[in-house]
Amino acid sequence: MKERHTGGCLCGGVRFSAHGALRGVLYCHCSQCRRQTGHFYAATNLAKDDLQIEGADNVTWFAASPEALRGFCATCGSALFWKGNGAEHVSIMAGAFDQPSALRGEAHIFVADKGGYYEITDGLPQFSASNG
Predict the structure, then answer these.
(1) CA–CA separation, 49 and 121 (whole Å)
(2) Quick check: 97 and 5 in contact, CB under 8 A?
């Protein structure tokens, strides 16, 4: 039986179920992630076929770049998903999961773009761009 993880947005208009093992959390410090959230993204991922979204009509997909879409709740603005064009996986924001989530940090990416107002001191691997 696959692991099951649930979560949703702030207003409850979007709920999701993730069925399967989740990747460790990547912390993305790129300028787009910082601008969308006011800080940095913390996201896991899984195969897109293992994600079920209830209230999908409340998700707005925004193409912030030619490479990917960012999904957020159209009502409350909660950042929820990120998916690369043609990718077989979808990223899910770690903070959108119900607690306890059992998620653990894995690495920091795009640290060359991080905000100057904080330091990364958790000892996780750091990559100046993507880790893949």
Answers:
(1) 35
(2) yes
DSSP letter string, 38-105: SS-EEEEEEEGGGEEEETGGGEEEEEEETTEEEEEETTT--EEEEEETT-SEEEEEGGGBPSP----E
Look up residue 128 and give its DSSP letter: S
Residue 66 has pLDDT above 70, yes or no: yes
Residues 81 and 89: beta-carbon distance below 8 Å: no
pLDDT tens-place string over residues 21-47: 899 999 999 999 999 989 999 999 999
- The conformation of residue 118, written as its DSSP 8-state character, comes to -
CA dist 95 and 81 (Å) reads 11
Cβ(44)–Cβ(94) below 8 Å: yes
* DSSP line for 4-31: EEEEE-SSSS-EEEEESPPPPEEEE--H
Question: Whole-angstrom Cα distance, residue 18 to residue 84?
Answer: 18
